[in-house]
Design a protein that fits this description.
The chain is mainly alpha-helical. The protein has one domain. Helix content is 56%, strand content 9%. It is built from eight helices and eight strands; from the N terminus they run E-E-E-H-H-H-H-H-E-H-H-E-E-H-E-E. The strands form four sheets. It has a two-stranded parallel ribbon. The chain has a two-stranded antiparallel ribbon with strand order 2-3. Strand 2 and strand 3 form a beta hairpin. Helix 1 runs antiparallel to helix 5. The longest helix has 26 residues. The radius of gyration is 20 Å and the shape is globular.
């Protein structure tokens, strides 16, 4: 089955001002993620001022990290086109960069305001997953985060010459990588919804999300077509190995210390509120 996409990446332009599908869905993803994060933080009975400051700096860190990772992954191009390095609204962001930058910005601000970091990470993990699923729709529409050619009569075919994937792939069936990742994220959210009452200690949900996403991203990236950086792996796979092993180590330590998964509850990391313990 072939899915043909002929959208122009830019659907509104006035002079030098342009609004594209990628920018629209990224803005929508950010708005929803921030709303979910603030909503969850309020249910933790945290002060609104410091909580909003955490959200702002998490957003700033996410934007910077997303664009920085993308530029580093395509350094040969941006070294010849330095003026385009900041034009993230035209497409070209790295989800892992957004996660790492957003987490770093939020954690530093939370520490500075003496807010509980692990519960906030749980809230942020769910918010980021929902935002990612929305944002990947923008990638799908414009051909960003393209997949390898399928070599068959199935896949997604971009017909618009302005699509963001390489020109030699215009009209060629490729793996619909954004759809793969959306499906993986929705699957993870479903598992979390079923298992969240067994996530006993603050931070467990975040570490499970980090570990799951690292594993799925490592596997799904084999359907991508990006530059090889080391050991025959792409940049996202190298980052996935680092974050995955780190999350696994922290999760095992917390399980060993008795702060892991079990039937007794201290708080609900999905609904983000206190639970009665027995």
């Amino acid at each position: 089955m072939l899915i043909k996409i002929g959208f122009d990446p830019v659907f509104f332009r006035v002079g030098q001002l342009a609004l594209g599908w990628h920018g629209f869905f990224v803005a929508l993803a950010v708005a929803v993620a921030v709303w979910l994060g603030l909503r969850g933080g309020k249910k933790l009975d945290l002060p609104s001022g410091p909580l909003q400051e955490v959200a702002i700096w998490a957003l700033v860190g996410g934007v910077v990290g997303a664009r920085l990772f993308h530029v580093l992954d395509h350094l040969s191009y941006y070294s010849s086109h330095p003026a385009e390095a900041l034009a993230f609204w035209e497409g070209g962001i790295a989800v892992y960069g957004a996660f790492i930058g957003g987490i770093a910005g939020g954690m530093v601000t939370a520490f500075r305001n003496r807010l509980p970091v692990w519960p906030l990470l749980d809230v942020g993990a769910v918010a980021m997953l929902v935002g990612q699923a929305i944002g990947r729709l923008g990638c799908l529409y414009i051909g960003d985060a393209w997949g390898r050619p399928t070599g068959g009569h199935w896949g997604v075919v971009y017909t618009n010459p302005n699509a963001q994937l390489p020109s030699q792939l215009i009209g060629v069936p490729t793996h619909p990588y954004p759809l793969y990742e959306i499906a993986a994220v929705l699957c993870l959210l479903g598992v979390l919804w079923l298992m969240h009452r067994r996530m006993q200690a603050p931070g467990t949900l975040f570490l499970v999300v980090a570990l799951w996403y690292a594993a799925t991203r490592f596997g799904l990236t084999f359907f991508r077509q990006e530059a090889i950086v080391v050991w025959g792996l792409q940049e996202a796979q190298v980052v996935a190995l680092g974050t995955g092993f780190t999350a696994l180590a922290l999760l095992l330590v917390r399980l060993w210390l008795g702060h892991g998964i079990g039937p007794k509850q201290q708080y609900d990391p999905i609904r983000t509120g206190p639970l009665q313990t027995k």
